[in-house]
Design a protein that fits this description.
The protein is of the alpha/beta class and 443 residues long. The protein is 25% helix and 22% strand.
Length: 443
Amino acid sequence: MSVVCADPCGWLLDPCSLTDEGLRRCVSLDEGPDAPRVFRCRFRREYFNTSRPHLHQSTADLTSAAKHSDARREEIDLQTRKKRKRKQRDLNTGEADARVYHGKIRSAVLEGSRALLEAGRRCGHLTGARVEPPPRSEAWDECRLAALCDVAKRLPLADESVEAPVNTLSRDALDPAADLFSRLTENPSDCACEVTLMKEKYLLPPRSRFLLSDITRMHPLLNCGDRFDLIVLDPPWENKSVKRSSRYSSLPSSQIKRLPVPALAAPGCLVVTWVTNRAKHLRFVREELYPFWEVDVLAEWLWVKVTRAGEFVFPLDSPHKKPYEVLVLGRRRPVRSSEAERLPEQRLVISVPSVLHSHKPSLSAVLKPYVSPEPKCLELFARSLQSDWTSWGNQAIKFQHSSYFSRESAEETPVRPRRPGPPARCSSTPSVCISKRWRVSAR
């Protein structure tokens, strides 16, 4: 179960447990007869290894170095005295807006997180214990998926008049020549499957679907015939950090606005967008993006990032980086009044962040009370898959690479992948989504 504890202020999440739930029973579709047929996988806890606040750690390192170099410290002091005193500049509009916003939510973050963090310590979830990182040879840090999507754009477009075909896993595995870039790929089984895609091994959760493409090749998703009741977006916002690191390509706001959310959303669809702490982006989502999509803004939740000991990863009042990110929630019109009233205006989602860049926690467990019992769920700009969700993006299976998981034996009867069935659906249980129509017995 991904929710460790909850109260009226929000939830404390275990970001690994929902992933692990879907991988309790895995089968390999391309291993030899001598390899274990059934096994269990867990997401490596080493990737959630933040044991101390980032800035506190840096300060401690600098202090230690200064103690061992008196001469260097005196030199630094001399240089500091010679520097001219900088003129205090006025805050620009974005900085001023960010300061005002922080002042509004500061008390909610500080007070609201206190009881949840204490409960997490009492139950042993927040212990501060550090886990040794995996050997460098085991980490698969290079992701070539986005580049492959760029190459795929040079191929001819599929016939958009034909209903989008689906690559479906079967007991004979997936066709090695399967087109991952202009067709949805689906694991209809009730167990996870390890498959080889583009010469790399990936774990596909049960009843999951994905499409690898960028914003110019979304027609297979549009043509699949589904309209979604829950859409979660994690856009690659433009900012200086992304430009300097070159980790991924960003999108300007004008391109994000062109996403076909109105065509993908069912009436009353709950739309949730991850927003960076730049006031400009938050203002864009609230005042321009959601109105353009005919989505009414209903709430702003906060993802609060803490260490394994339950401390904020950055000082709450740090002028540079804050220990939280914003989630903007809204519903696409027409919205039933009962739905609008059920969604609380402010909640905290607290978890230990992943050291992997842009690896967000799943929101399935905390959003399930605010959608229908068996909703169709979609994640845009996804970097991982979820049971009973459809995922889209040019890195949609990045964190499904087998190197991110530890593997254990499981003494269970193998389960054959099912034949194609109805579309995957989202969770109606706390930790994993199970649709009754998709449940099959082990063979």
